[in-house]
Amino acid sequence: MVADASSVSGSSPSLRDFINLASREVQHYIEAFADLTADETRATQLFDEHGLAATRRSTQSAFVVYRLRNDPRDVAEYREVILIDGHEVKGHAARAAKVWREVAVAHSPREEIKRITADSERYDLGLAETGLTLFEGLPLRLRCAGDFTFREVRKETAGERPVRVVDLPAGSSLRRSCIPVCVARAARGFSATACGRIGA
Fold this sequence. Notes:
Helix content: 25-40%
Number of domains: 2
Oligomer: single chain
């Protein structure tokens, strides 16, 4: 993670204070995007075992960041896929209406997420992924405090601004409560390695 240190008050805040500031900014980002709707175009490219381009898919979706009815503190991502490789998905509007009717009567956050992600990932190619738009900052979320160990690599300048480069060593273990409900369904053996590395 490379971050601008100039927005932190004081001449040289501790790494903990710096991480706390980043945590607040991640939470602000998530809250700012709650209840968002947008048109989204995604292109997915798979590669074969030799590293050569194999299958490619382009999808156009109505993208919704939805605040969970059963737990308004959390949000989920829903994609109503409208076009695949330029061809309209037959019955997409009726299927989306059905999903929202089912979500309206769900009895738990997990049930809401299950219904939303099953439809959102219907046309995913390769790995099914939901939640990465909002939760790329998972290691910095306040609910994950203490689950990750950050290490300051160096201080430098970018232009004339001070910058701190921080590394997240792979292998940290996550408490189940740290994982957002929208990614918890795939969280068996979830670790910082599975999350990836926040690198310089």
